[in-house]
Amino acid sequence: MVIQDKIKYIEAKRGRNHPLFMFRNWLDEKVPSHRELKLIQVGGTNGKGSTCQWLNLFLRKEGFRTGMFTSPHLVSHLERIQVDGSWIEASEWERIYDRYADFFEEEQLTMFEIDLFMAIVYFVEQKVEYGIIEVGMGGRLDATTALDYIATLITNVGMDHTEYLGTTLSQIAKEKAGIFKESTLAIAYDTTCFSVMEEEAFRKRTSLLVADYDLSNLDTSALPAYQRENLVLALSCLRQLKLLKPYSIQSVIDSFSWLGRCTVLRKDPLVLLDGAHNMPGIEALIRSLSSFEGVIYFSVLKEKESDKMIKRILKWNSNVVLVRFEEERLADLDVLHAHYRIPTIDFEDMIDRLKGAKTSTLICGSLYFVGKVLAHRDEIGS
């Protein structure tokens, strides 16, 4: 198999992860030096990837060699594993995969477990000084929680993945707080259900701190509101770990970007892309933009709160268009079209319209949708 076939093969390996002790045992046996890695774990409903990027950029600014593991990917599966801001090379990915392919098959690891296992192998090989690990889903049972950390962070708590994490904010908060570990720094930005998370921290014999960093002396005007929240969490963590030098903060803020989050594809007329893939994400986007006039292209997966998301978007003075793209988990857009009387078009038609757009345009929704748009960014931006 060529690398594309190998990636396609593991992407079909969905399902529940193995118990944490099993995944930990595999790492201890096959990659024992993983225990020497200094890792920071980032959990929460939204903003995990952005917070990882903030941490990554600040640590690199201080001269540290960093590793970063995030999911899902937007453009290439390789982007899930990065060292010093660069995706793992295809040849390196294939070399590591081939070395452990029989083990992956024998133990029937899921795609997420394979990705994480390979990331840890690569980080050890590359001698990273700090690694940033994004939780896949939830926290308590997530494969990333099998690792050791110097800090565990929670961005926020919102209603998402309710079929797995619970149907109330308290239940979801408890699942996310499951990442806390004994005598390990724990910080949360969002104080929603803080008492629930604090109780879990107490049970794990650690203290939960609230993210707190004064941004008043910094210029954050170019950042969307939700990125300022992620920034505060990252800065709070690094200050607690004594890894932060204030003089470097502004330069990182000035150059910050995270693909698919308030990404400007074209400036005139404005074409803005944002992975607001759930209701908390939509609320965060609205806080950041406050208003938007133009055309909004939107697509959503069936397990998300599509009705609430559309109702909130419709409050803007904009023309909303639903976009159909190839994805088995796509919501029933025909039902949404009939109920809200919103036009529906195919993805290819949207791309054609974007090329000749003469008004401000916002593209938002599913991260898979955002990823497909990014594959056409050169056409849209020209």
UniProtKB/TrEMBL annotation:
Pfam families: Mur_ligase_M (PF08245). Residues 42-207 form the Mur ligase central domain. Gene3D superfamilies: Mur ligase, C-terminal domain (3.90.190.20), Mur-like, catalytic domain (3.40.1190.10). Keywords: ATP-binding, Ligase, Magnesium, Metal-binding, Nucleotide-binding. The keyword rRNA-binding does not apply. GO terms for cellular component: cytoplasm. SUPFAM superfamilies: MurD-like peptide ligases, catalytic domain, MurD-like peptide ligases, peptide-binding domain. InterPro entries: Folylpolyglutamate_synth, Mur-like_cat_sf, Mur_ligase_C_dom_sf, Mur_ligase_cen. GO terms for molecular function: ATP binding; dihydrofolate synthase activity; metal ion binding; tetrahydrofolylpolyglutamate synthase activity. Belongs to the folylpolyglutamate synthase family. This is Mur ligase central domain-containing protein. It comes from Dubosiella newyorkensis. The lineage of its organism: Bacteria, Bacillati, Bacillota, Erysipelotrichia, Erysipelotrichales.
